[in-house]
Design a protein that fits this description.
Largest sheet of chain A: 2 strands, antiparallel
Oligomer: homodimer
Radius of gyration of chain A: 20 Å
Structural class of chain A: mainly alpha
DNA sequence: AGCTAACAATTAGCATACTTATTACTGGTT
DNA sequence: AACCAGTAATAAGTATGCTAATTGTTAGCT
């Protein structure tokens, strides 16, 4: 019954303690070695932290990244946005549908190339900047609460290099 | 047009280079400071790497974690599994539905407490261990390709501490 | 001009995550 | 025994991600 309080992370810790040596790869796959698993776990934990903060102002997680890039440069095409945010075009379409529904952005067909659609922030979309940014800062602060400034920087650097390694993959 | 090749990660790099100083928090929220954004990005990049590897053997990402914990201890209840994997009960239900559909696990109502359901691996579920584990190892190797062994260990450690910080949150 | 290849957005279908509400069951209290 | 609070699983609805296929548009070639 006390077992129900256990999380994967604690399991990781337990295994690390009770590890009874052996071949590095040949035996049981060690979950504490799984970078992918931990990254996914950390990302979800962070999402659980930030999500309600954004929701309090009527924004969702998936909209946050799009907003950041639009604040930096308004009027980008969907394709440009999906490349920047690094999600598929099809995913961007649905995210923008919801943002349009929520009155955060406006779609405008490009008259010079009618295949393209430029996305413009509405007043409401611009206004969210002042309320959302502090929430994100607070969320990040909470996540790095146990890290020194050096460690935080190093984590960002290491994550960046992991992303770089994964993105340059041949994909053959 | 060359712009369409840009990804968020490259944008991060560009901003880092051309950063024109200022207040640490008051001005434009700097995306390169966003730990949460980078963790989410890294997790998705990893998923794009591992997902097809697992799919080649008929398994999905969400099933991978469940399988790992079942291989370590077969016959756990759904509640125990969702605590370990650190996803909600409701999410576990659907993941197990798909795993049952795919013939990887079997549900068995606990006769001593009919509220509980114990999950048992099928032969097919057990067999996947030998094929899936090498794929996961290869995926992890690919993700940490550009890191030294020390750096890899440190990344795991830092992620663990971020998770710890986020999970002990008051949640009031 | 007409054909074709590439491109931008979309649709459709699936997987995985969340929250909230419901159902079935258990165990303890009266 | 009857009741009630808590527990385990599920259902319902939404968000976000993916792939594959489709639609409309553009631009380049013949």
């Amino acid at each position: 019954m006390t077992d129900t309080e256990r999380t994967a992370f604690e399991v990781v810790r337990r295994r690390e303690a009770g590890k009874d040596g052996g071949e590095p790869d040949g035996g049981l796959f060690a979950i504490e070695e799984s970078l992918g698993y931990l990254m996914n776990y950390a990302a979800r934990a962070f999402s659980r932290e930030l999500s309600p903060r954004l929701a309090a102002h009527g924004a969702r997680m998936g909209q946050w990244a799009v907003l950041m890039f639009l604040w930096a440069q308004d009027g980008q095409t969907q394709r440009e946005l999906s490349r920047e945010v690094a999600i598929e075009d099809a995913t961007m379409v649905r995210t923008l549908d919801r943002m349009e529904r929520d009155g955060l952005v406006r779609r405008e067909r490009n008259p010079r190339d009618r295949r393209q659609i430029n996305i413009f922030l509405t007043e409401k979309g611009w206004a969210l900047r002042d309320t959302l940014v502090p929430e994100a800062i607070e969320g990040n602060r909470s996540a790095s609460r146990r890290l020194s400034e050096d460690e935080r920087r190093q984590l960002l650097d290491l994550l960046g290099r992991v992303i770089g390694a994964l993105e340059e993959q041949p994909r053959g």
